[in-house]
Amino acid sequence: MDLLQDAFAHSPDALMIVTAETDGGFRFLKVNASFVEATGFSRAQAEGARLEDFLPPEDAERLAVEYRRCLAQGTTVEFEQPYEVPSGQRTWHVCLRPMGPLGTQRLIVSARDITWSRNFAQQLNAVAAFMPGFVYQLCMAPDGRWYYSFVGEQAETMFGVPVAEALADANALMGLIHPDDSERVIRDSLHAAEHLTPWQSEFRMLHRDGRLQWVEAHDQPQKLGDGTVLWTGYVNDITERKALEASLLASEAKYRRLAQFDPVTGLANRSEFFSRLNHAIQLAERKAQTLALLFIDLDRFKPINDAYGHATGDALLRQVGERLRGELRGTDLVARIGGDEFTVLLQGPIDSATAQQVAEKLCEAMATPFPLNDHPLSLSASIGVALYPAHGQNTEALTRAADEAMYHAKAAGRGIALLSLSKEDPHHGGCADNLGARS
Fold first, then answer.
1. Taking Cα atoms as reference points, which of 266, 383, 382 lies closest to residue 319?
2. Contacts of 128 (CB under 8 A, 6+ apart)
3. Is residue 6 among the annotated active site residues?
4. How many C-beta neighbours within 10 Å does residue 283 have?
5. Alpha helices (runs of H) in 149-210, residue ranges in sequence order
6. Burial class (CB in 10 A: 0-12, 13-18, 19+), 89
7. Cα–Cα distance between 147 and 125 in angstroms, integer?
8. Which of 99, 127, 269, 352 gives 106 a disulfide partner, CB atoms 3.0 to 4.6 angstroms apart?
9. Catalytic residue selected from 262, 340, 403, 433
10. Residue 84: strand, helix, or coil
């Protein structure tokens, strides 16, 4: 019992024990120190006095109505109300609870002075109209209960939730946070409150009509004397900004297939090809494997391009690219490195005979007429073949070897030229003495 008396005496809220009178009025039996401090009434003035003894008639009757409702229903009743007391005009959050079963004549009243909060709310209301989103004060009581002490009117516009509903039930707004973001938002808010640091976050919320919205929230947490955590801040709709960011990222990504691929044929371009060739050589070196590089130059392409125009020339190049890809494995890479020049990377392990067979297939594919402008156009190709590591042990050396072989093939009457190893040095030596040509 002593503990209960101590709790009553030292509660930070103003506490009163009130009893119902037979004439329908109410009398204060006991008040605590917080009541005296908050109201300015002394214990002598309050204890044993009736409501109308120290409150104006209107205030006394309004409070008596709530007292009767609490006792009649036998349940807790909460409300907010301004009252004139010796300490001035104050706004109170009042909680009434019967002290016993239904029909009891006593109740305990707790009152918390929220004047500062209401004054601040009025200031928030004054500036809320100028904010791009809605202003709020979100509280977490010591018992873990969440509630809003202030919600700007823009909340209804943004999310379809009336202010009164959000004030009555915090979940009306908090429950609209996207399920995938909710845990993070709550966790980060509590972390900011623990360290009393400003909090900012971007997350998704759902409008009551089902629309997904991106919002950003900024607030500053503080801890009140009774242990309540209070976040004061605002929420702004950034859905349009997020859409623009997504569009920009897509554009940047598109600028980057484009930076890697030839716009005419859709094949890898020079930069992308040699980057991947360099990577393939490094991998082949680690695995002690071989690979082949083919340089392909189209014969008689310039006269066709000049005679039929660039549109026809581009269409022909696209068909060339399609045929080359059609003759290669999915692991191989074909690229257009400029004009009528193409390159092919044959992944290893591969030997010279197999590389030459692939080159022959590509030559045959180029020799088949291309159906353009309602009549076939004929081409041929000169192909130079070089092997790693036999003809070059790095990208530059292997490229020079394949390019040299291609020019040898063209000089020999078009077809295929394969660099071969010198008999004296069958394993090393980069670009070797002998060239084998097929026309």
1. 266
2. 134, 135, 152, 153, 154
3. no
4. 13
5. 154-159, 163-168, 171-174, 179-195
6. exposed
7. 18
8. 99
9. 340
10. strand
How is 212-276 classified by DSSP, letter by letter?
Answer: EEEEEEEEEEEE-TTS-EEEEEEEEE-HHHHHHHHHHHHHHHHH---SSB-TTT-SB-HHHHHHH
> Is residue 349 reached through a cis peptide bond, with omega within 30 degrees of 0 on the bond before it?
yes
pTM beyond 0.85, yes or no: no
Backbone torsions φ then ψ of 244, nearest 5 degrees: -65, -40
Residue identified by tokens 């060239």 is: 435
CA distance 351 to 291: 8
- pLDDT grade, residue 153 (50/70/90)? confident
Give per-residue pLDDT as tens, 162-196: 999 999 999 999 999 999 999 999 999 999 999 99
pLDDT digits (tens, 9 = 90+) for 52-68: 988 888 888 989 999 99
Q: Please state, in angstroms and rounded to a whole number, the distance separating the CA atoms of residues 377 and 200.
A: 65
Which residue type is seen at 217?
A
Strands (E), 300-414: 333-338, 341-346, 370-372, 375-377, 380-388
Cβ atoms 122, 116 nearer than 8 A: no
Work out whether strand 229-237 and strand 134-140 pair parallel, antiparallel, or are unpaired: antiparallel
Q: Which helix (H) or strand (E) holds 111?
A: strand 106-113
